[in-house]
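ugh ok fine here u go
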Amino acid sequence: MSTIKTVCVYCGSGPGTNPNFIEAAKALGKALAESKIRLVYGGGSLGLMGAVATSVLDHGGTVTGIIPDFLRMRENALTRVQEMVVTPDMHERKRLMFERSDAFVALPGGLGTLEELVEQLTWQQLGRHAKPVLLANVDGFWEPLFSLVAHMRETQFIRAGLSVDILKADKIEEIIPRLRAAAAQIPDSEQDLAPDVARRL
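structure:
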């Protein structure tokens, strides 16, 4: 049985066109802070990234930002966080985000968000980790991805023995309970990806 002490949130560095995206990020930040769950995120102060991190801090929570050196200026690294880790490249950033997190949540975002999310789902599919991965389906944002995954199953590119377990929450208040319920089913021996494996991925 595992517990949720840290959650990695993947999300856009822009606000998107729907005001509900920013509001959802703020609500998730508040929920994490009130639940005493540390946020691990991409380190920026812009868009949804900035909204979720600032909300955690505004509600007394703890934040770890992990950002590549070349993005510090472009994404305006958030200086208020308790811990900011600067990495030499994107690969190291993603590895550290994985190692420091008990679960993953994807808010709306673009290609970077999708790439980070799909990497965790792929590692899960290959048996490299069993940490919960949840999509915050704000106003149905992730429905096209769910449809694509269903299509991949129908065409047997995602086969029964290589299934992916994607959690879904249509409401922000559902996220933490669902992560906790999923984590409670994970044997401790399956929680972590071995460091030597992480370095090779």
